[in-house]
């Protein structure tokens, strides 16, 4: 059956978008001329000038960049930063002194324990006197009384 000879209108197909909006697709109108292919225009030739040796190319020095001067001296910020730095330094020194004192106390305590242990080791004798249990001591006493 030939559909081109039909007199009934053809219903346009409907395409629905992501939000549900209907889009009616109609057939394209007939072309009045054959389609032409797109050919971009040729780029214009670029003239670079005379070629130079790489050693002959010198770039100009960049202009000096002037630092903008502050509108006023930020002395409160500098004072605050200095105070924070001094406070942090003081805390650091305090912690360092505390650590040194703790280490000195520990070393002193260990030295005292060592001296005490040495003293106990040297005086563990049965006679309780000096000499540390090295035996009896010979004592010779000569007493004369002339008034008798």
Describe the model.
- The chain has one helix at 75-122, and strands spanning 14-16, 22-24.
- With 148 residues, it is mainly alpha-helical.
- It is elongated and about 175 Å long.
- The longest helix is centred in the middle third of the chain and has 48 residues, at 75-122.
- The N and C termini lie far apart (177 Å).
- It has a two-stranded antiparallel ribbon with strand order 1-2.
- 0% of the residues are buried.
Distance between the termini: 177 Å
Order of helices and strands: EEH
Main beta sheet strand tally, sense and closure: 2 strands, antiparallel
Spatial order of the strands forming the largest sheet: 1-2
Number of strands: 2
> What best-fitting shape do the alpha-carbon axes yield?
elongated
Low-confidence runs of at least 5 consecutive residues: none
The count of helical stretches stands at 1
**Average pLDDT metric:** 77
